[in-house]
Amino acid sequence: MPGRLSLTARLTAFYTLVSAAVLVGMGVLVSLATERHFVELDHGYLKDKIGLVQKIVRESPSQVELSGRLDELLNSHHGLFVDLRQGDRLVYGQEAASFPKGLPTADSGANPVDWSVGPQTLRGLSAQAEAPALPDVASQATMQLRIAVDTAHHAHFLQALRQTLMLYLLGAILVSGLLGWWAARRGLAPLRVMKERAMTVTAQKLDQRMPVQAVPAEFADLAQSLNNMLERLQSDFARLQEFSSDLAHELRTPINNLLTQTQVSLAQKRDANAYQDILASNAEEFQRLARMVSDMLFLAKTEHGIELPNPEAISLDQETQALFEFYDAVADEKRIRLSLTGQAVVIGDRLMLRRAIGNLLSNALRHSPTDAEVAVMIEQQGANTTLSLTNQGVTISPEVLPRLFDRFFRVDKSRSHPDSDGAGLGLSITQAIMAAHGGAVTASSSNGITTFCLVFPGSVAG
Amino acid sequence: MKILIVEDEPKAGDYLRQGLREAGYSVELVTNGVDGLHHALEGDHDLVILDVMLPGMDGWQVLQNLRAQGRQMPVLFLTARDQVEDRVKGLELGADDYLVKPFSFAELLARVRTILRRGRSGMESTTLQVADLELDLLRRRVSRSGKRIDLTAKEFGLLELLMRRQGEVLPRSLIASQVWDMNFDSDTNVIEVAMRRLRAKVDDPFEPRLIQTVRGMGYVLEAPEGAR
């Protein structure tokens, strides 16, 4: 993946950078501290030597004696330079040192100053020296003393120290980078396990799950969420599979009928009436197929887009009354009484709600015995509005109840309801419509009384 | 009455043309949007039946162009996709009606007749008559051969629809929508039962039978040949 670093690489780089910064900082601190230590050391050394020179100057009775003793001093202290002047006259000094002007004095407490002479770096201080014993300086007994030490041996030591530090730093950064990489890889190992597990998941193998117990706490939530997702996918997928095989089956029967009937009719010549009959019967079958297809599309659409096409305030009692009028003839044929109690207004799509209630009503009429009653009751239950529809008939067993809303589900598998050409999609459609309204449909059945209940969340007064 | 059909599916186009011709219309069929627009602009059609998915130029564009050039003839859409947006779009662009495939031919014919009738309003009579069957719209009364027939409100509405559109085969879905305002397919035989009960009052005691079932299509009310 160009432009995108792996998590391991990022963690490694981050870890390496942090440890490099820490180590480099330490190295710089160490070398600075060492250098300062040397400066202090030199400071003391120089002050010490200033005292010594001052003592020599004070005690020397003659110029020759002074030079002799100073030579002796310098010989025994390698790398030490002295410059002694009286006014502008050089009393004692080494050309090699070429002292700068304005060196800090020893008693000022300031640090000595560094300067370079050729390849050497010198560090020096100045002071005054009294020479009361010198005979020829009686008029001006005070001399200017400048003293310096060659810092070459410090420089060598520091350079060696820095090299060692540098080597150590490089090694340490490398090692910490490796450690970081190893830690990141180890830390992310559960992700790889999950990835490998995920790679084995296919449509046929949706039963794979993430190892929740085997991963660290941070990943456990993720793994659990993924598992929940897989769970949902698996059940949805199973439903989809069942549904498409049902669909194929449902389509096969009418298509088979049509094909057989048409081919048998074509097998020999018939009179016009016979052809008309066959075509009419085919047309009926085609209408059934077209209905099934549009019902399926309606279901797919309703289950997909949750947005209601035309939300408005719907009076449930008025809609039910309109549906009663529609089904009046059918109910009357079976001498079924339709009754309605209660009233409520909900927000919904009129066409969809009519369809939802209409499906329940036609279902109830179909399964009611003659001389029975189908009752619709509209109630407020807490915040919810419910419309329940009760009919008498055969008790539906509790195992079957939840399956009523499955597509193509029929209580009697024989598919032989003389007065119904429905495909077994009615209750699924009702359920989908209620879901689109944020509500639900439930079913209960006992003692020969079956009740379907539409639950609408909330209510609208009026 | 001239109808232009713009439909790219050859079988569907042929059958629509045949069906509408046999229903007494003069029909022209073209198979792509560009020809469709051209013919609609050149000709003087009373109705355009327009498929949405067309090669060259889709139905929306054809309609837009037609309306942009000031042609106000009614347009009926045929669409394979029943999306609310499609419906809204079609109606916004100025379509008069739409049908979702698959549709029954009886339904299409009924819609075509409704649209074509719209233009010719006026001379609204207060009584309808077919053979010896009379329906008085003002007094809400029905009589046949001079005998009064008692109908419920919905039966009256059903008979009124059949009589207003006598000779037309009315599909069940159209009847449910017009009489009961139920715009969904019920999976019960509501219309059959209602029709049976209406016949029991209007047809059974009399000769000849005026309400016919056309299998696979719907119902039609008309006086049989020679009985007028």
Keywords for this structure?
A: 462 residues, alpha+beta, Heat Shock Protein 90, 12 strands, 53% helix, 18% strand, B: 228 residues, Arc Repressor Mutant, subunit A, four-stranded antiparallel β-sheet, 11 strands
Count every beta strand of chain B, where a strand is a DSSP E run of 2 or more residues: 11
Helix and strand pattern of chain A: HHEEEEEHHHEHEEHEEHEE
Radius of gyration of chain B: 20 Å
Report the CATH superfamily of the largest domain in chain B.
Answer: Response regulator
Q: What structural category arises from helix and sheet content of chain B?
A: alpha/beta
Q: Which stretches of chain B of 5+ consecutive residues score pLDDT under 50? A: none
Number of domains of chain A: 3
Q: Helicity of chain A, in percent?
A: 40-55%
For the record, the count of structural domains of chain B works out to 2
